[in-house]
């Protein structure tokens, strides 16, 4: 596993953690970070997706603020720093950088051609924006924060999208969930999965709200989705 450099044009460049499958090649998957940066959790997720046969890349989407952020969810100080980074992160630039990562991965020699995106928390919103703004061939968002504020982009979705919604998500209110369902129920390209008893970040191993059963269910659904659309 290694770090690669992604070109951001006149803005410079940024790095991403790359994990390759045992066979050396496969479809691409851009893993979009939580508010803690490209930390151990994100790198392990990339390794797990590589073990499933994907070329997995987690780009540093906080590089414009401070490159190389790696926080955990274990201390109050790190939580405070994570929320500070979230508040100053320019989502439009982060979405554009996600698009650059998708294109960089598509051109990588190990990638077979198709590239998807999967994101968590902040990355869950960016996965939605990947479906509306980038060339992602299939996108999955886990408990995305703020998707209801960008529903005016839904007509731009041209490739399959899956969203995992935590029913007790403290960062996605019941009203927001109603809006999301109203926008996408019946949409030919969008699949919604609800987890009524789960809170935010239910799929983050070691997290306060981690739930093994629903985390495994959501991951299995995601894998089947990517097997269908990327392989």
Overall residue-averaged pLDDT value = 97
Report the portion of residues in β strands: 15-25%
Largest sheet: 8 strands, mixed
The number of helical elements comes to: 6
Rg to the nearest angstrom?
16 Å
Query: What is the β-strand count?
Result: 8
Alpha-carbon distance between the termini? 22 Å
Domain count: the total is 1
Give the structural class. alpha/beta
CATH superfamily: Alpha/Beta hydrolase fold, catalytic domain
Strand-and-helix sequence, N→C?
Answer: EEEHEHHEHEEHEH
How is the CATH topology named? Rossmann fold
Strand order of the largest sheet: 1-2-4-3-5-6-7-8
Structure description:
There is one protein chain. The mean pLDDT is 97. The protein is 36% helix and 22% strand. Strands 1-2-4-3-5-6-7-8 form an eight-stranded mixed sheet, with helices on both faces. The chain has six helices and eight strands, in the order βββαβααβαββαβα. With 231 residues, the chain is α/β, with parallel strands linked by helices. α1 (40-51) links the parallel β3 (26-32) and β4. It has one domain (2-230): Alpha/Beta hydrolase fold, catalytic domain (Rossmann fold, 3-Layer(aba) Sandwich).
